[in-house]
Design goal:
Chain B: The modification N6-lipoyllysine is found at residue 102. The complex is a heterodimer. By secondary structure, chain A is α+β, with helices and mostly antiparallel strands. Chain A has helices spanning 2-10, 12-35, 42-52, 56-65, 75-96, 104-112, 126-139, 169-172, 175-180, 217-229, 274-277, 311-325, 345-355, 357-361, 398-403, and strands at residues 117-121, 151-155, 160-163, 184-187, 195-197, 201-209, 235-237, 243-245, 248-249, 253-258, 261-269, 289-293, 334-337, 367-371, 376-381, 384-388. In chain A, strands 10-11-6-2-1-13 form a six-stranded mixed beta sheet, sandwiched between helices. In chain B, 21% of the residues lie in helices and 26% in strands. Chain B is built from six helices and nine strands, in the order H-H-E-E-E-H-E-E-E-E-E-H-H-E-H. Classes of the chains: A alpha+beta, B alpha+beta.
Chain lengths: 409, 170
């Protein structure tokens, strides 16, 4: 029987799938190790578990097939084999169907073809996730006729602060505090203000055509969907288009238009560790520095968690409603991505840009800052000091200057 | 400490789109630099499907901006990002972006050329893009590339053709 099982497993029909089991298991082990995702996906996993875990019926089918060399003396080892096999089968179904992670070529194919879909990233790397979003956005074809290629992405990032493309980072965040609390700093490709992410925050990104794009549209849908699910949520839209609950902001939005397409992406605070957020969105030395800059200034808002729903439930509900509401012909599929499999040069390039010092610290708007206790006014363009009362500071990197501010006086 | 997004309350009063089209708000402002740069005015003004305009003068100097239609759709500009002087930018490449209360919107180069000057007035006063997108709100002054004739560049449209595409937008 064990012979038969291994033959069966090695038959051409299954050998590929077994490799897939090992590959995806490996990827999952890695990702889980990296992000402790076990709990996070538990809901969805158990849903598919119920759907796909082979029942006793499957076992009896196997026993039927094995009747010819059925040997009662080997029953216990056979049962072990069967249960091992069933476990493999379960793993295959559970990962293979529920979360088949796209390869680079699969990703490219679906993104470049027309059509609507949902992508959920299983990575929690903010660099990968923003780069993936950028890739999908850039490579989605423009729909000149017929329905537009609506796409919906979900991703959850590890701790990070994300500033808008045209913001002065020094004025928005305190780099030293971010570092001490293990928050990465990213400058995103879209406009808007600064937001904080952690694993209790879900990011959704709705992509559509420039013509169909309307800033408040998708948040209105989300509010409708979630309130109909549970009226206790009492979600509402404020005049800026952000989602609020009892007057507190729970979601912040930013928008980008390029190449005849547009996206609206937003955060959704579900069970974020808000205590860790406090004090991070303030410039360093707030009492000593007076900032003046063009560019975009964040609007400070009181925030809270939605509560009641978990990140997984949020993703499941919004995906499901999106699939229903935006269906044109055929079901809208859900795909899964991670940074090990669903990656290509274009995504890597964008990750490199996002990670680069150049993009983080040496871009953004011009600004000037007055350091009161030192009586200095410093003007900065692209991260470099270009004008100052003290000549020896001109030409210095502002970042280095601020880090060692005491040594310059 | 500055903490509010700057707003320029220069938004158009609500006018029907039909009226906008008929009034040709997307025509070049004849009283401003992009038109007055040369005494005879621009030889050609062309439009892209992404709502940029380009006004080309006899000496191959061209001004680029975005149309009235586009700025109305974008809402109040809060920041204008422009390229560095001296940069050679090919047609279709990014020329910069305009961030408004609603979005960061990419601007594309209508035809090959090298940036000669940027409209530095927009650094402090991005709202000018909304007030006079077809005149004072010009973004970039550039020198067209050798042999570039905007009347033959694929994808560039006349005012009439451009405004026809807007009808189809709805």
């Amino acid at each position: 029987m064990s012979m038969m099982l291994s033959n069966w497993a090695l038959s051409p029909r299954y050998v590929g799938q077994r490799n897939l089991i090992h590959c995806t298991t490996l990827f999952h082990t890695l990702t889980r190790w990296a992000k402790d995702a076990d709990d996070k996906y538990h809901d969805i996993n158990s849903m598919y578990e119920n759907m796909f875990t082979p029942s006793n019926d499957n076992v009896s089918i196997l026993q039927d097939e094995g009747k010819s060399d059925y040997d009662t003396t080997k029953t216990s080892s056979m049962q072990e084999d069967i249960s091992a096999f069933n476990k493999d089968l379960y793993n295959f179904y559970n990962i293979g169907y529920a979360k088949q992670i796209m390869s680079a070529s699969q990703l490219e194919n679906i993104v470049k073809a027309k059509g609507r879909f949902v992508i959920q990233s299983l990575s929690t790397s903010p660099y990968y996730n923003l780069a993936l979003e950028n890739y999908v956005f850039k490579n989605t074809p423009r729909a000149k006729r017929g329905p537009d290629n609506c796409r919906l992405l979900f991703y959850i990032n590890d701790r990070c602060a994300v500033i808008g493309k045209n913001q002065n980072l020094w004025q928005e965040v305190d780099l030293a505090k971010l570092k001490s609390k293990n928050f990465e700093l990213l400058r995103r490709f879209s406009g808007g203000g600064t937001v904080l992410h952690d694993l209790g925050n879900v990011n959704y990104s709705y992509l559509t055509s420039r013509e169909k794009f309307e800033t408040k549209f998708f948040n209105k849908m989300i509010i409708k969907w979630l309130n109909s699910l549970n009226p206790e949520l009492r979600l509402d839209l404020n005049e800026r288009g952000d989602i609020i609950q009892d007057g507190f902001k729970i979601s912040g939005s930013a928008y980008k238009i390029a190449g005849g397409k547009a996206y609206h992406h937003a955060t959704m605070l579900l069970n974020a560790d808000l205590e860790q957020f406090s004090g991070l969105l303030e410039p360093s030395l707030p009492n000593n520095m007076e900032w003046e800059s063009s560019g975009v200034h964040s609007v400070k808002s009181k925030i809270k968690n939605v509560g009641i729903i978990t990140p997984n439930q949020f993703i499941a509900v919004v995906s499901e409603r999106f699939q229903k509401t935006f269906k044109v012909d055929g079901e809208i599929p859900i795909y899964y991505c991670d940074e090990f499999k669903s990656i290509n040069d274009e995504i890597k390039d964008a990750m490199n840009t996002l990670q680069s010092e150049q993009w983080k610290y040496f871009s953004g708007p011009k600004f000037s800052v007055k350091i009161k206790d030192k009586g200095l006014t410093i003007k900065v363009e692209k991260g470099m000091i270009y004008d100052c009362d003290r000549n020896d500071l001109i030409g210095l990197e502002f970042k280095g200057f601020l880090e060692n501010i005491d040594s310059y006086t | 400490m500055l903490r509010t997004t700057r707003l320029w309350t220069t938004r158009m009063p609500t006018v029907s789109k039909l009226f906008l089209r008929n009034s040709s708000g997307n025509a070049l402002n004849k009283n401003k630099l992009p038109f007055l740069y040369s005494s005879q005015g621009p030889q050609a003004v062309r439009y892209t499907s992404q709502h940029e305009w380009i006004a080309v003068h006899q000496d191959k100097t061209a001004f680029v901006g975005i149309t009235k239609y586009a700025t109305d759709a974008l809402g109040d500009a809060t920041y204008v990002e422009l390229p560095e002087v001296g940069t050679e930018i090919a047609q279709g490449e990014s020329l910069g972006s305009i961030e408004s209360v609603k979005s960061a919107s990419e601007i594309y180069q209508p035809a090959d050329g090298t940036v000669e000057e940027i409209n530095t007035n927009l650094e402090e006063n991005p709202g000018v893009v909304n007030e006079d997108p077809m005149g004072d709100g010009w973004l970039v002054k550039m020198k067209l590339g050798e042999g570039v004739n905007v009347e033959q560049v694929e994808g560039l449209m006349s005012l009439e053709q451009y405004e026809k595409t807007l009808v189809h937008d709805d």
